[in-house]
Design a protein that fits this description.
homodimer, about 210 residues, alpha/beta, Dihydrofolate Reductase, subunit A, nine-stranded mixed sheet, 6 helices
Chain lengths: ~210, ~210
């Protein structure tokens, strides 16, 4: 039986989202600062950008590689798929492109009733109006012995964490203070109970904290 | 010229104070969890508890030792001296004992007008009704080439951090989630600008983050 996993980049003050997007800079400088180390890894360059032989190796890359390993299905929120920007548009296929970088079933939690979307490369998006528990059960069935990843966004991740449904949480803590956004840790007092917590600091300054059970 | 330094234990979610004190347990379990690694170091055992040859060595102890080195004066808030529990009591000499573990001038920021208190072991408490800047200037004059420590509490530390008056902030991030208390990081967006930030993880799981300029 696989595990239920979450991986996130967060700031030292716990923020997993950024708020400085503008029409001219839709990603924002804060997001670039938050993800710079991750984006710079060899794994990200190869798996997401399709570049070979580029990017950093070492501890940050080891954790980046783990993110892609042994996953058989994913659960994500409507915003992560891209429904918030294109509500009730039946032609919109999300912003993950023609060949999304998943290659397995993805359950998108939404109140929209949309038909299943089968993409190139093995990714199938299922749109589910059920509870987070039901969506996870369906993803687990698909994943079999492999893990299920709760991809995001942060509010969905926080729901799964608060419900005690996550077996492994890895956060890459980036030593910057964002001061605003969605805080991963809000109302998660004593989340560490029942988990083994490990910490590792990379030469980049990023600290990898893992809660595992 | 010395540096202005701050050292704190904080939880992974940024809390530097705890809230579970009761009349039966005036320190509280959270404080014990937050400070367990620090209290377990050889330095703490020797310098604060007067025990010799006990406690951990290694990275956590190295940072604990640094806390005591090269300090020539300290600034602290009224609560840390002990005035909040004994307001307007001229006989109260604080809760640091007859021989406080400082051995140098300590400036206590308070609205109470109290005479200077000269204790055994070289500690002199000065009670000042001035601004945080004035108190720091007086401490710097006393410290000379040595450092000035802003000892606490957290709200005073946050005032000094926000005012840009701290040269070196070391936090021992303990991998527990307290979920409540005073958050060190609140409203300190981009505090890292102008500092070199380093991170080190100890085998205990505690992560040492240092902002230095």
């Amino acid at each position: 039986m696989g595990k239920v996993r979450v991986d996130l980049n967060i700031s030292l003050d716990g923020y997993a989202t950024t708020t400085d997007q503008t029409p001219e800079d839709p990603i924002g400088q804060d997001w670039n600062r938050l993800t710079a180390t991750y984006v710079g890894t060899r794994t990200f360059r190869e798996r997401v950008l399709g570049q070979t032989g580029k990017g950093t190796t070492g501890l940050d890359n080891d954790y980046a590689a783990e993110y892609f390993e042994n996953v058989g299905a994913e659960v994500m929120g409507a915003g992560m798929f891209g429904l918030h920007d294109h509500p009730n548009d039946p032609d919109w296929q999300g912003w993950w492109g023609d060949t999304p970088p998943f290659g397995f079933p993805v359950y998108v939690l939404t109140h929209e009733d949309r038909p299943t979307l089968k993409m190139e490369g093995g990714t199938t998006f299922h749109f589910v109006q059920s509870s987070i528990e039901d969506a996870l059960e369906r993803a687990k069935e698909d994943a079999g012995d492999l893990d299920v990843r709760v991809g995001g966004g942060v509010s969905l991740v926080r729901s799964y964490l608060a419900a005690g449904l996550v077996d492994r949480l890895h956060v890459a803590v980036v030593p910057i203070l964002l001061g605003r956004g969605q805080n991963l840790w809000a109302d998660l007092r004593e989340f560490e109970r029942g988990y083994k917590v490990t910490t590792e600091a990379a030469p980049s300054g990023v600290v990898h904290v893992t809660f595992a059970r």
